[in-house]
Amino acid sequence: MLLWFIQVAIATAFVAVDIRTTPEATVMKWGFVIITLFSGLFGALLYVLSCREPLPGTHELYVAAKWRQVVGSTMHCVAGDGIGILAAAVITSHLGIPTWVDVLCEYALGFLFGWSVFQALFMKSMFGSYLESLRNTFMSELLSMNAVMGGMTAVMVPWMTSDMLAMSPDGPRFWFVMSIALCAGFVVALPMNWWLVDHGRKHGMMTVRPNGSPVPQVSAVAHAGATLSRHHEHGLGSTGRSLPTVHRDVHEHQGDMPSAASPDQQGHAMGKPASRSQLMLMTVISFLIFGVGLLVASILGDLTMHH
């Protein structure tokens, strides 16, 4: 267990220092630091593979891949929810309540913090006002939170009810078990966040460059390659525009590159918007996932045990 906390400290220090130069939104930077604090090398690996800019000026294209958008969306959810969940777990550990009540308290505080702070407050600029942001982020937070808690409960309850030392936040076992449970919640929430991103309900990574600074030359090359690929896909590769024309367009585009990537690159509209019936179906599925987590917890653990 000591090795776990050592690798968490090393991984968190690396991400906290390295991410300062990554052109990502501040809330996402904090999210990666928090998720690494929960998961150690797993979080650091997620950061390197999904967000860390491989070459100067390539972040926009690098994070445009849907799976990276999904990782960012899930990470953002688990980081925010995780803070509320851990806070509730620490508070309820001293109240002597049944485990099932503890789980519901963790769900409630995790949801409220994730929704009101990490979602609505930090994304307020996207919707114009805090109230509008609350309204627009409620369903996506609900669906994602249900999946996170389903995965967490299935791991956390059986482990803690079979190891009394893991129930006290005064000891390292508690934090170790909660970290593993949050990792499980992350994995379970990935498919749900894929659906949310694919249907425009959530976004993932963003690119924020200081003062709208121009994209470096290496990005111009990447944009040129992407432009040529698009022409080729549309049947223009053999008879379309010549390379010099594309090259000129890239340089024209390079000078007025905005400080953040376009909506298509950000994943705000990566798929067809979900219909009301689809959203209702996914809501039911999300509660079923949470229900399965509770069922596993009741079979392998003891939901009636008092802390």
Helix content percent band:
over 70%
Shape: globular
Order of helices and strands: HHHHHHHHHHHHH
Number of helices: 13
Low-confidence stretches: 214-224, 231-269
Number of strands: 0
Tell me the β content.
under 5%
The gyration radius over C-alpha positions equals 22 Å
Number of domains: 2
Q: Biggest sheet, in brief?
A: none
Q: By helix and strand content, what is the structural category?
A: mainly alpha
Q: Determine the mean pLDDT.
A: 83
Measured distance between first and last alpha carbons = 23 Å
Organism: Phyllobacterium salinisoli
Domain DUF4396: 67-202
Region (Disordered): 252-273
Transmembrane segments: 31-49, 70-91, 97-122, 143-162, 174-196, 279-300
List the defining traits of the structure above.
about 300 residues; mainly alpha; 13 helices; about 70% helix
Written description of the protein model:
This protein is mainly alpha-helical. It has two domains: 2-208 and 267-300, no CATH class; 214-255. Helix content is 71%, strand content 0%. It is built from 13 helices and no strands. It has helices at 2-18, 26-39, 41-50, 59-62, 66-92, 99-121, 124-127, 130-161, 172-198, 217-233, 243-255, 263-266, 276-300. Helix 5 packs antiparallel against helix 9 (172-198) and helix 6 runs antiparallel to helix 8 (130-161). It is globular and about 55 Å long. Mean pLDDT is 83; it is low at 214-224 and 231-269. InterPro entries: DUF4396 (IPR025509). The chain crosses the membrane at residues 31-49, 70-91, 97-122, 143-162, 174-196, 279-300. This is DUF4396 domain-containing protein.
